[in-house]
Structure formats: C-alpha cells, structure tokens
Backbone:
C-alpha cells in the first residue's frame, strides 16, 4: 500500500517566485512513501492519481515541485517514471544538518530546541563534538499541470540522473 502523499503550499516560502507565479500556483509534493515491497509501479501509479485529483480539485495550480534526496541515495525514479521535468541539483555542498550528540538534526530542529544554529555555539553549550553535515543536495523535479506551463518548464529540463548505488557511480 502506498501512503502519505502530502502536498503543502508553504513548504518552501518562495517556491513560486522563480516561475513568476503567486504562492499557491506552485506547490510542493513533500512526501512520497512506499509501505511494503510493491515496487515503484504502484508508487508511480499513486503519484499519477494524486496529480490527476489535484488538477481536478485545484485547477489554479500550475506546477508541482518535488525533491529527491541524494544523501538518501534517491535519484527520483518515481518522478522520472511519471514524466516530471528534471532541473538539476539544489543546495549541494551546503550545511544540511548538524550532528549533535551523535544524532543528525535538521537546523530547524536545532532552533526549535532553543539552540543557536551555530557550530561554535553548539560545541560550547551542547556537545563539544558537534559537527556540520554537508549535504550532497537534492535532485529537483517539476510537474507542469498545464500545457502552457510544460512549455515554460521544458526549457529548464536536463537529462535525468541515474540511480546511484553504494560504491558505484
């Protein structure tokens, strides 16, 4: 069973601005989770059904954005199977998290604990061995909901990345 298709308008506050759209015309597909061992076929079918329902229920949405986390060894196979437009890697070689007390923590989680998002501050006040986690980035995919938007976004398209396997390129 495929579960948890979560589309949220404000996951990324300025998600619409690069496309000259207002917030809400471009939304982010935040979570795609496969429960069990059904494989990508069921998941891509569920994503396609979700996009179709979204288009029917929210016709003002021009595009959906989603990301595949390279640090999790995700290339975006589901998005490729459902004909999304790949535009490259975002936020590569940036601080993606902190390692505090041996646990990887998103900077927002650090902030929500009342801690400063500063490696020096964390080392002085929480964990002397705290580290920054530098991310490989996320593969960015766009799904146009209209023919006009597909034409606009196709000029940004680059070839799909290949699935990486541990120890192989």
Residues:
């Amino acid at each position: 069973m495929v579960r948890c298709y979560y589309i949220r308008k404000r996951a990324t506050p300025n998600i619409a601005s690069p496309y000259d759209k207002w917030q809400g015309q471009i939304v982010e597909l935040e979570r795609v989770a496969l429960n069990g061992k059904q494989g990508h076929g069921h998941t891509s079918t569920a994503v396609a059904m979700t996009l179709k329902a979204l288009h029917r229920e929210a016709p003002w949405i021009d595009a959906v954005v989603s990301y595949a986390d390279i640090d999790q060894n995700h290339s975006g196979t589901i998005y490729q199977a459902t004909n999304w437009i790949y535009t490259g890697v975002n936020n590569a070689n940036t601080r993606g998290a902190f390692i505090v007390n041996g646990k990887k923590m998103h900077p927002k989680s650090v902030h929500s604990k009342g801690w400063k998002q500063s490696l020096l501050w964390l080392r002085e006040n929480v964990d002397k061995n705290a580290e920054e986690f530098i991310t490989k980035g996320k593969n960015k995919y766009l799904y146009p909901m209209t023919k006009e938007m597909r034409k606009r976004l196709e000029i940004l398209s680059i070839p799909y990345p290949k699935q990486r396997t541990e120890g192989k390129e």
